[in-house]
Amino acid sequence: MNPGRFDTGLRKFGAILGDKAEVGCNAVLQPGTILGPRALVMPTMAFGGYLPTATIARIRSQVSTFPRRD
Hints:
Elements: E1 16-17, E2 22-23, E3 28-29, E4 34-35, E5 40-41, E6 46-47, E7 50-51, E8 56-57
Parallel strand pairs: 1-4, 2-5, 3-6, 4-7, 5-8
């Protein structure tokens, strides 16, 4: 067996959330995502991979406006 890899025996696998981890409204966790204890994924974002203990994942985007051309 490869260190860091575990055979789940499952065909599909979702996500693992540590104790008191939180996922905001309309957030999406990609398959195989691992959130450490007390980790937080902010609302309306897609996240995949590993989020360490007591860490926050967020996206800061800037809204831009421009006139329509119709």
